[in-house]
Design goal:
Layout (H helix, E strand, L loop, with lengths): L2 E3 L3 E3 L4 H6 L8 H5 L2 H11 L14 E4 L6 H9 L40 H14 L7 E6 L6 H10 L7 E7 L10 H7 L4 E6 L3 H8 L8 E6 L6
Parallel strand pairs: 3-4, 4-5, 5-7, 6-7
Antiparallel strand pairs: 1-2
Amino acid sequence: MTTATDQGRTYGYDDLPRLMGLMTGDEKHGPAATSTLDVLWVLYDRVLKVTPERRADPARDRFLLSKGHGPMAYYAVLAAKGFLPVEWLPGFGTYDSPLGHHPDRVLVPGAEIGSGSLGHGLPIAVGTALGLRAQGRTEPAVWVLIGDAELDEGSNHEAIAYAGPAGLDRLHTVVIDNSSASHALPGGIAARFEAAGWSAVTVDGRDHAALYAAFTAPHPGRPHVVVARVEPKNA
């Protein structure tokens, strides 16, 4: 699937490196950005039920970028899908640009949360899923993208432990595993979620077919986590 943006120009996956290349500066966090590129593309291209026109639709899927440091891939995908103008990308990180080094939900069209502080996204996603349930909205899915290093944060321990027994089956988490965690547990990341009652799948984070299959795997009555393994950050 591709999306027509900017006066009829069509952008696809192969355009993303060029779009990311429009963003420069000393605070790019390049490895953090590129580690998320394939996950973000598959989600926005094939999974998420949200479009620029549906940004305020109560029935839309919610995508929360917790891994907000190094958001260049996120901005590139949002631009490719028509959420924001491609012309904004070269201004990334400048004083008067809406595209900051961390996304701002007030300034970035399509961004559900402001992010960048480690450990915030998953607890917010749990609260979002609970809020939608309380409103009787069973259609929207809640997705949150986190980094493996965020799992060192205690806030995520609590969110993982709560979501499983609560049966938040509209909650989906994607963990980018680039070997950044300081306190990894034996058995891997997936085992940590499974122990708390989650459905869990581990896949190659660059394989689009495997990612799509993992994202769409059934998980009745349980929240779902996809661990997307990519090359080590310092490789």
